[in-house]
Amino acid sequence: MNYFISIFTGIILSVMISLNGQVGNIAGNYASSIIIHFVGLIGIILVLIFTKSKIGNLKGIPFYMFTGGLIGILTVLFTNASFAGLGVSLTVSLSLLGQLVISLVIDHFGYFNMPVVEFNKKKILGLVIIVAGIYVMTLS
Predict the structure, then answer these.
(1) Where does the sequence pass through the membrane (predicted)?
(2) How far, in Å, CA of 8 to CA of 3, rounded?
(3) d(C-alpha 72, C-alpha 29), whole Å
(4) What is the Cα 74 distance to its own chain's centre?
(5) b/e map of 73-85 (b: 16 or more CB within 10 Å)?
């Protein structure tokens, strides 16, 4: 089930980048970021209301963990900016490469209290294949 959820997340991320990029082209990057995050806020409030969920205890959460929201803003701004020049597939591919590289570093060193998953030679091969795929995509 987790594999399916991850694949579905990739699908909706590509759709999101397409839609957000178009809003960015029309309204500008900063205005589109406000619009996009406001719509997201309304959406999650509705989810909380309809599921009758409660917000958990926020005490004890280290401050740096809340910076994910700021990273979300940067992600929207940067993908909107690159969307116009690169298109969806290359924007997503390069974003995934960046995610993969930093996730390997986080896993290897156990940053952010994550369990350590050491880097090995097989992962280098995977990275090389991905970089080669992105290179081939840029040729067309």
Answers:
(1) 30-51, 63-86, 92-112, 124-139
(2) 9
(3) 14
(4) 10
(5) eebbbebbebbee
Predicted confidence (pLDDT) per residue in 28-67, tens digit: 999 999 999 999 999 999 999 999 998 888 888 988 889 9
Phi-psi map region of 32: left, alpha, beta (phi>0 left; psi -120 to 50 alpha): alpha
Which tokens hold the place of 110? Answer: 């156990």
Q: Where do we find the tokens 């004890």? A: 60
pTM over 0.85: no
d(CA 80, CA 18): 9
3-state secondary structure the chain: CHHHHHHHHHHHHHHHHHHHHHHHHHHCHHHHHHHHHHHHHHHHHHHHHHHCCCCCCCCCCCHHHHHHHHHHHHHHHHHHHHHHHHHHHHHHHHHHHHHHHHHHHHHHHCHHHCCCCCCCHHHHHHHHHHHHHHHHHHHC
What residues have CB less than 8 Å from 77, skipping those under 6 apart? 29, 30, 33
134 vs 137: CA distance, rounded Å: 5
